[in-house]
Amino acid sequence: MPPDHATIVEWETMANAAAPALEKQLYDGWLLRFANGYTKRANSTHPLHESTLDLETKIAFCEAQYAKRGQPTIFKMTSASQPPELDAALEARGYQRISPTLLQVCPLSPNDYQMAEWHGSTALSQEWLESYQRLDPVKGPSLQTISETLTRIPYPNLYVALRDETGHIIAIGQGVLQESCIGIFAIVVEEGQRRRGLGRQIMNTLLSWGAQQGAEKAYLQVSADNTRAITLYHSLGFQTMYDYWYRILDV
Hints:
Blueprint lengths: L4 H14 L4 E5 L2 E5 L10 E2 L8 H14 L5 E4 L8 H7 L3 E12 L11 E3 L4 H10 L7 H9 L5 E7 L5 E10 L2 E9 L8 H15 L4 E7 L3 H9 L3 E10 L3
Parallel strand pairs: 9-10
Antiparallel strand pairs: 1-2, 2-3, 4-11, 5-10, 5-11, 6-7, 7-8, 8-9
């Protein structure tokens, strides 16, 4: 049974705060987010709260706002999206359903995780930023856009990097400490270095750091078809809280 509307709104609000947009616009209970195309979450409409205006008028308004910025119109959808008929209305309008994703949560204890050997910092470095773009290429946004987005995060961060014997960064991860929770982001391992346990090392480091800083829970978002990552996260104690997906007009 999925969580209720208030619980989903609480987790969505937390995840949005850990991944801030460069621009936000509130419109009759919907939140429009813009970040020069960097991530779908930060460049989509989040229909989290009850709306009162005509649905077709609202959808058209959102389309105009994203078109003005040269971006496709994207809606981030959950079972709590408002109004309940929105998903069907978007499908009828030609919006494709893409990127099914799971939001997963794990309880934390300071004694449950072993710190990995790592090169990490609570400050965002140019080297980490460049490694992020190299390991997980993002179409469109510049390094400046990514940097500006990450530096807007209003919480303590831990940026972790694992290196090979030459000092070359082969895996990265990011933790965002939000009071009693830590959000896990940007877990990426270089393609030729996978299946060596590096993702687990990154996760153990971030979860251990979060627990030592007082976090009681961790959360992350993982593609529903990424079975390898889901298996890893499950072994660390993560369970799915709810799923979400995107509706996009221009793929």
